[in-house]
Records
---
Amino acid sequence: MKPIELSFEFFPPKTAEGVEKLRASRAELVKLAPKFVSVTFGAGGSTQQGTLDTVLEMTAEGFEAAPHLSCIGSSKQSLLAILTQYREHGIRHIVALRGDLPSGMGEVGELRYASELVAFIRQEHGDWFDIEVAAYPEFHPQSKSPRADLENFARKVKAGANSAITQYFYNADAYFKFVDEAKKLGVDVPIVPGVMPITNFSQLMRFSDMCGAEVPKWVARRLESFGDDRESIREFGLDVVTSLCRRLVEGGAPGGLHFYTLNGAQASKAICQRLGIKSV
Ligand code: FAD
């Protein structure tokens, strides 16, 4: 198998315990020599300081750290202030998103879509930032149609994105088809698969419901049948996700794999080990 470039996604912890847990996870995951790590951002700027603090701590440890930035619910002025702050800290890599407003919360903001945020970043900061955007092999839940979603994806790449990371999925065919269709629309940037390790059945079903990712029925039924047997869930989850990753890499997924770690190291690390990725 060709070398796999890894990236790991974290969220900014809210408690001192959470900060320690994340440090411990990073200490494990750094051994897999990731290309970069990324840190999520709460819609409307709710985690703004936490995202920056976490990114700076990781940068100081030697990681290339990319903050996520979402535009929904924000003014151009506030987005510009955040971008300027990142730039002043020497951050050159960013994940640009629309984000989701919690229901009933506030105004949409001045930029309605990620494509507008990407264009705004390019307009204000030229080529300073390497920009990632989100892709949805099973399509964004609010999109009008698969075709419209693909066209919107192509639009945000054309606005100036350098690469894309997908929403997680468990159906490799959906990914390969999406990549093929995107290519036909002129998208020539890497579309890196986002990988969600499976460790907890109810949490997985809840997340998948929210983001529109499909958990295949045979996977859901098996997981459900394990009840509270966490070891069986872990073992089965590792098998399913490692097979998926192997298929993606062997099938030509470019660049590598992006792991949604949920701030834990064990599941991502175990999958990487099963894929034969050596620790340094
Ligand atoms: P967009 O690309 O703007 O698309 C949103 C919807 O609008 C889609 O249905 C699209 O088809 C449609 N659309 C786009 N352009 C147009 C147009 N011109 N006209 C009409 N319709 C259009 N959320 C967070 O809050 N914080 C995070 O840190 C975060 N990180 C993420 C990281 C990754 C890798 C992924 C895949 C998702 C992440 N999300 C995060 C979730 C993301 O914010 C949501 O999925 C959100 O609903 C869509 O964001 P987007 O950037 O994909 O939006």
---
Amino acid sequence: MAEIEKVEGYRAGQTFPPSPEFTAQANVRDPHIYDEAAANPEAWWAKRAGELRWTQPWTKICEWNPPHAKWFLGGRLNVADNCLDRHLAGPRRNKAAIIFEGEPGDTRVLTYWDLHREVCKFANVLLSQGVRKGDRVTIYLPMIPEAAIAMLACARIGAVHTVVFGGFSADSLRERIGDSQSKLLITADGGWRRGNVVRLKDAADAAIEGETTIEKVIVYNRMEDPRHVHMEPGRDLWWHRLMEEAGASSEAEPMDSEDPLYILYTSGSTGKPKGILHTTGGYLTGVTATTKDIFDIKEEDVYWCTADVGWVTGHSYVVYGPLANGATVFMYEGAPDWPQRDRFWALIEKYGITILYTAPTAIRAFMKWGTDWPAKHDMSTLRVLGSVGEPINPEAWLWYHRHIGGERCPIVDTWWQTETGAIMITPLPGLSTTKPASASRPFPGIAAEVVDEQGSPLPQGTDQTGILVITRPWPSMLRTLWGDDERYRKVYWSKFEAQGYYFPGDGARRDEDGDYWLLGRVDDIMLVAGHNISTMEVESALVDHPSVAEAAVIGRVHEIKGQAIAAFVTLKEGVTHTSELAGELKSHVAKKIGAISRPDDILFTAELPKTRSGKIMRRLLRDIAEGRALGDTTTLADPSVVASLKEKYSEEG
Ligand code: WT7
């Protein structure tokens, strides 16, 4: 297991209990809730669902016909009503719902009253354009309040949104529109990224050129002059024009608990993206309860989740979870290093952010840029920190703890997936004694297990790497893959069909205390001379070295050992790459984990190939290391990175 070592001021194996002051004020401080939920998960989830506003009560909590679940059957509610209307009666009506800052520094504040009005008006716009309950609407917007307004307006009338990340190409957009058969597209003329204009409208035009299901395109004017934007007569309509004419009164459609809320596409291990389908009552129950308990949301918090709304984190923890809790959500459009590398810290200081939820890949970038940037800012308002997206290495965890959290903020390392809808494995900040790089344990009401290939539970505390499974249905689980139920069964339920376990595809271990350690995708686990080695464990050892900024490790085919370990390494600024350093890194890993984990190849590179969501594309690294033609590179943030790596590998390798 990854141990803390060599981070000055911390002991190996050190654990981090919450402070008594934090616990005393926490939303959850009674450890008994774990037992209460485990004793009767359905009753517990029903209690959490009861915190929402239902226009008609459910008649049955859960129906489980493996692999299909329904939750809160017969119940009716509306997601937008719960996120907006419900807060208007009391003092929250004039509270900031969204505080926005664009990359160029423009700012806006929408109170709950404002946001409600905008959503009602846009719901009427959608209706006026012929959108009806059950129709699909594709949203392709920058990170601006209109993204949340569009989503909530769909939810209000019962249309199914499918948000496509603004960084995706025209081809990806076309594929998602085609699969979801959307009839309306909502986009903007552009958005800002590192001082450049991302021309969304051009991509949108290309995506619907020729045959398409899209009938109308609504365009939000974010950039300067609307006259420079090509608008297709009869098809394209300006958001602001439509809103001028729209009425502000709107009834929220009472939706069945199992009516679809959204489809969100996520990449599969092969080819075509998977359309994850989430429904209404169970999903909202899951995101509302987890937001409240895990981020310890309070009335006066200013909460910032840095994810784009194009990802599930943006759906569940920028829009639905926090707004259902009546929280103040901060939203930022641009890049963390624009105009300077302290933009995030400047924003935290400026807005008095109290809760920050971001990704390990961002934290490692901040580490690489150095501690001077955060040190320039007063971040004493922060009280809870979150991490999501991939396993966080102990070094990054400790850096986050010390340099961002001032050693006072609990860190919640939250494991979940697009498919799970809501956080599944996580600390509770007022209760859990955290261990750097452990996601702690399943959220109350979630039943998980670590099993072997046959599905038998592995004992706690074993060294063996196991497979994470979820053993009972949960309210916010995906219901199917849009238009492909067969694939849904195959991908998630066929591996442990006999046991009826959900298979997330992640490796895990549980230690003596019952804490879970997520070890990356199961397909990221290497088999070297018959030993299971987690790529993440080797990466963690590498980034633990003072010269290393980031590392990606893959298993490449090796004729004797089965697989050999190849490491792609980026160095901290000012460090030069030498063959001595490569040798030193190999020994360092061998020393940290054992000789068996010693990398065979170390390749220094200025950048790693990443998807736009920041995930390292190990599949491409494997292609490079094994000298194959590169597979699909369309989801890469910067395709030139792999091309130059490939060249370099064949020269040096
Ligand atoms: C995969 C899901 C959940 C929103 C963002 C990603 C990995 C996610 C953690 C974590 C270790 C994590 C898993 C998971 N992952 N969070 N805290 N620790 N691994 O959503 O794109 O659906 O990816 O991300 O491998 O299966 P996603």
